[in-house]
Design a protein that fits this description.
Elements lengths: L2 H12 L3 E4 L6 H9 L3 E4 L3 H15 L3 E4 L4 H15 L4 E7 L13 H7 L3 E4 L6 H15 L2 E7 H5 L20 H13 L3 E5 L1 H5 L3 H11 L2 E4 L13 E4 L6 H8 L3 E5 L19 E6 L13 E4 L2 H12 L10 H10 L51 H11 L4 E5 L6 H6 L8 E3 L9 H11 L4 E7 H6 L3 H8 L4 E6 L4 H7 L16 H7 L3 E5 L6 H8 L6 E6 L7 H9 L1
Helix pairs in contact: 1-2, 1-6, 3-4, 3-16, 8-12, 10-12
């Protein structure tokens, strides 16, 4: 049989069921061979979009994503999305055709292995027709077992050759790595001695399905529960859930985390974002880190206790080491009641930009975060808008949408000045419903990654939260949303600028012409692609959103939200100060 057929057979047999890509001559045959064997192919309009779709699908499904591209420019077009996946440890296999070994003068020749290695991906190759099936199997298993992004170079001459039908032997399943008994005992003793322990669960806990075991251990030692941004939703519904630790932490979450005397990272890197450059680690607090990758422990900050092991297996081992001993820890009726009242961002009062009232009151008993430094609204301004330009406060908008949109949703977040608003004010039902592609912090990936997540979670309403810059960067994939018939809400926070740069450089008097743009009718652009398009400048403008939600949802909805832009986001201000 032809090598392309053998490779496709191996990948489908190993579990490949969904393939994203843009097809050219170099990947035409292998893509059709995958489809012929039952895999579903989703065509993107740009290779970077295809890479992000495969990444988002893998995150939301927990399976290996598959990307197929053309040789040369097909791969380089996709490289930003592949970089995001590699830095996020997304299990992703990239089928990357390459020129024949003899084609030394081909204009398509690039060093595929060096390119893959430079972004943190694992380079693999079809070395010969005889080894091709085994090469493909090895690449897939590396992606699956090591949670790595693998770039499989597929020389055109090898692809076109004949080979015997593939015979790939069975490999025993890899068992999760348990911690050493002494490390589990040390952490158990530290938890018993702690008066205010806090667990921060990250990507390792998310992919390891460790929620139940971490909750049992937290119950035994009285720990409060938080997550990194990538694992948002992991403890949703638990009365001790503080939500996200780091720049997106609410004032109460930040207060309680910084008051901990022991912080335990479970599959979390405890980097500058999650720990706010160390400011969430209080004086005298001890730090423990649990990770199945020994090189990750202490990589971002010194730790007092290190446990090398799978998060779920480690939680079980530490619970066993407690031997029935328990501690009340950080938990009390008062703390539980405060979490119920104050931990959500929507329960924190704020000075509303552009309103006559000037502030949004907190519910009874909720603590205020104080003034935000935003200028007061001119007299007569409509609630939630700027009087001069009729612009809505992003917080007011997002809270209203959180109430309107069904609870069963999957939310994808692009990068930019706006990104904290949907991350903090839109709730998600669990960790599989939050697609946070920020490992590379590239603008323009959010729409495509939400498409992938939506296909992995078809029973949930997909919501792509984007800035105007990110939307226009990846605008071609709106056609993909419409073509696939996805009932997606595309929410655009439109400040007519690259807001992070405006608010970082503007206060120092730098010219901003390079990062600001004239108004664009983004709702009309959406309608041109086949969406229902609505422009929102005030809360009353959300009525068409209600109608769309109540209707058949037979086409996507694009919301062009003209948001206020008089001040920058506090999470980016903090990040810039940290740098």
């Amino acid at each position: 049989m032809q090598v392309t057929d053998a490779v496709a057979q191996v990948l489908v047999d190993l579990g490949a069921s969904m393939v994203f890509g843009v097809v050219g001559s170099g990947n035409f045959h292998v893509t059709n061979a995958l489809v012929a064997r039952g895999a579903r192919f989703v065509a993107a309009r740009h290779e970077c979009g295809a890479a992000c779709m495969a990444d988002g699908w893998a995150r939301a499904s927990g399976q290996v994503g598959l990307l197929t591209v053309h040789q040369g420019p097909g791969l380089t077009n996709a490289i930003t999305g592949i970089t995001e996946a590699a830095k996020s440890r997304t299990p992703l296999l990239v089928l990357a055709p390459d020129v024949a070994g003899s084609a030394v003068r081909s204009n398509f020749r690039i060093d595929v292995a060096a390119l893959a290695a430079s972004i943190g991906a694992v380079p693999e190759r079809l070395h010969s027709p005889v080894s091709a099936a085994a090469d493909a199997a090895r690449a897939y298993r590396t992606a699956e077992r090591e949670r790595r992004t693998v770039v499989l170079a597929m020389p055109l001459d090898v692809q076109a050759a004949q080979c015997d039908p593939p015979v790939v032997g069975q490999v025993p399943p890899v068992r999760p790595c348990p911690p050493s008994a002494s490390a589990a005992t040390d952490l158990a003793e530290a938890l018993l001695a702690a008066r205010r322990p806090v667990f921060v669960a990250g990507r390792g806990a998310r992919v390891g399905c460790a929620r139940a075991d971490l909750e049992r251990l937290a119950d035994a030692c009285g720990a409060l529960l938080a997550t990194s941004a990538t694992a948002k939703g992991l403890f949703r519904g638990n009365p001790w859930d503080l939500d996200v630790s780091g720049g997106f932490a609410s004032p109460l979450a930040a207060e309680l985390i910084s008051g901990a005397d022991l912080i335990v990272g479970w599959g979390a890197s405890l980097n500058m974002w999650t720990m706010r450059h160390g400011r969430l680690i209080g004086p005298g607090a001890r730090v423990a880190q649990v990770d199945d990758d020994a090189s990750a422990i202490g990589a971002h900050r010194p730790v007092d206790l290190a446990v090398v092991g799978d998060t779920r297996e480690s939680a079980r081992a530490v619970l066993a080491a407690l031997a029935g001993r328990t501690s009340g820890g950080y938990r009390s009726a008062q703390v539980r009641d405060r979490i119920a009242r104050e931990v959500r961002w929507r329960d924190v009062p704020y000075d509303e930009e552009g309103t006559a009232a000037g502030s949004r009151p907190a519910p009874d008993g909720a603590a205020s975060i104080g003034g935000t430094g935003h200028p007061p609204a001119p007299d007569g301004a409509a609630p939630g808008t700027d009087a001069a330009g009729q612009r809505i406060d992003a917080r007011t908008l997002t809270i209203a949408l959180d109430d309107l949109l069904p609870a069963e949703r999957v939310v994808g977040i692009d990068s930019g000045n706006f990104m904290g608003y949907p991350s903090m004010f839109l709730s998600v039902p669990d960790e599989r419903a939050f697609c946070f592609t920020q490992a590379y912090q590239a603008v323009g990936l959010g729409l495509a990654s939400t498409i992938g997540a939506a296909l992995a979670q078809p029973g949930r309403l997909p919501v792509a939260a984007l800035g105007d810059g990110g939307l226009l960067m990846g605008v071609s994939e709106i056609e993909t949303v419409a073509r696939l018939g996805l009932p997606m809400v595309i929410l655009v926070y439109d400040d007519e600028a690259y807001g992070a740069e405006v608010h970082h450089f503007g206060p120092d008097g730098h010219p901003l012409d390079t990062v600001t743009f004239p108004p664009a009718d983004i709702a009309a652009i959406g309608r041109g692609f086949g969406c229902a398009g609505v422009t929102v400048r005030r809360l009353d403008d959300l009525d068409p959103v209600r109608e769309w939600l109540a209707g058949p949802r037979d086409r996507p909805l694009l919301i062009d939200a003209k948001v206020t832009a008089s001040s920058g986001s506090w999470w980016l201000e903090e990040a810039f100060r940290g740098h």
